[in-house]
Amino acid sequence: MKLQFSIFTKLLIIQYLSILCVSQDFDFFYFVQQWPGSYCDTKQSCCYPKSGKPAADFGIHGLWPEYKDGSYPSNCDPDGVFEKSQISDLISDLRQNWPTLSCPSNDGTKFWTHEWVKHGTCAESELDQREYFEAALKLKEKANLLQALKNAGIKPDDGFYELESIIAAIKEATGFTPGIECNVDPEHNSQLYQIYMCVDTSASEFIQCPKQPRKKCASTVQFPRF
Ligand code: AMP
Ligand code: AMP
Questions:
Q1: Nearest alpha carbon to residue 154 among 170, 171, 177, 174
Q2: DSSP label at 214?
Q3: Residue 115 catalytic?
Q4: Distance from Cα 138 to the centre of ligand 2, integer Å
Q5: What is the whole-number distance in angstroms between the Cα of residue 16 and the centre of ligand 2?
Q6: Structure confidence by residue, pLDDT tens digits, 37-65
Q7: Which of 53, 54, 64, 206 is most deeply buried (CB count within 10 A of its CB)?
Q8: Where residue 174 falls among pLDDT bands split at 50, 70, 90?
Q9: What's the total number of domains in the chain?
């Protein structure tokens, strides 16, 4: 009798845990934007998209589902495919705001497919493919990072800026503290490379980061021209 009860209890616990797992696919998003000048300065081989040199503005890298413990899911749908037809009316917006810089020169489909298959498919409980790309475009407009930095006198002029003043400028403009990732150019300068903002699971509001992404920046960083 005692044994039967414990098996029953265990089954209940297993059932409860499986419901928890299904209902919570991820905890928040990192919305990652990238400075093209830094990508091109470091990766000797950056190539402009077929449509031409992107604007001197931050570009979207991705919208990544995250867990609070610092880990993240990826490639969640083994049958996941990117269907360009679902977002044909967003393509010109994506070209402008989510530009590819990889070589050889291409139209961006490869980068968008990679981001959707690797990261987007892990948010499918919240957003379908169209909603995923639309949400990212809206978030970029909302953050308006280049303007936030310009308002604080921080411009892509090859100058060096205090990391803390970059963080403060974005906090002032958006209300939230970003995570900053740097890279190192061939002259060993630490450069402003990617800016991470945290977003709620519906991909509509910035939130305070439950977990700050790791940073690799010097206390003073270069903001290269593009
Ligand atoms: P890294 O090793 O930081 O250059 O990252 C390489 C790639 O791993 C990124 O472009 C992402 O696709 C992925 N990655 C790294 N950290 C995360 C994270 N916290 N969440 C989602 N993807 C990540
Ligand atoms: P993660 O795997 O983001 O999602 O992204 C890492 C991959 O995306 C790497 O292969 C990077 O080289 C590539 N990547 C990062 N930024 C860009 C970009 N602007 N254009 C094309 N590929 C990129």
A1: 170
A2: P
A3: yes
A4: 20
A5: 38
A6: 999 998 778 999 999 999 999 999 999 99
A7: 64
A8: very high
A9: 1
1 pLDDT exceeds 60?
no
CB 181, CB 13: distance < 8 Å: no
Question: Is residue 4 situated within a structural domain?
Answer: no
Whether residue 113 is predicted with pLDDT greater than 80 in this model: the reply is: yes
Question: pTM for the complete prediction?
Answer: 0.90
Q: Is residue 180 part of a domain?
A: yes
Could you tell which of 34, 72, 101, 198 is best to mutate to test the pocket of ligand 1, judged by most ligand atoms within 8 Å of the CB? Answer: 72
Mutation to probe ligand 2, out of 35, 100, 102 (largest number of atoms < 8 A from CB): 102
pLDDT of residue 3: 53
d(CA 53, CA 96): 10
The rounded Å distance from CA 111 to ligand 2 centre is 7
pLDDT at residue 198, as a whole number: 98
User: Cα–Cα distance between 37 and 224 in angstroms, integer?
Assistant: 6
pLDDT at 4 over 70: no
188 in active site:
no
- Which residues span the domain enclosing 193? 27-223
CA distance 155 to 37: 12
Indicate if ligand 1 lies below 6 Å from the C-beta of 72.
yes
Q: Facing residues of 184 across strands?
A: 190
CATH number for the domain spanning 69: value is: 3.90.730.10
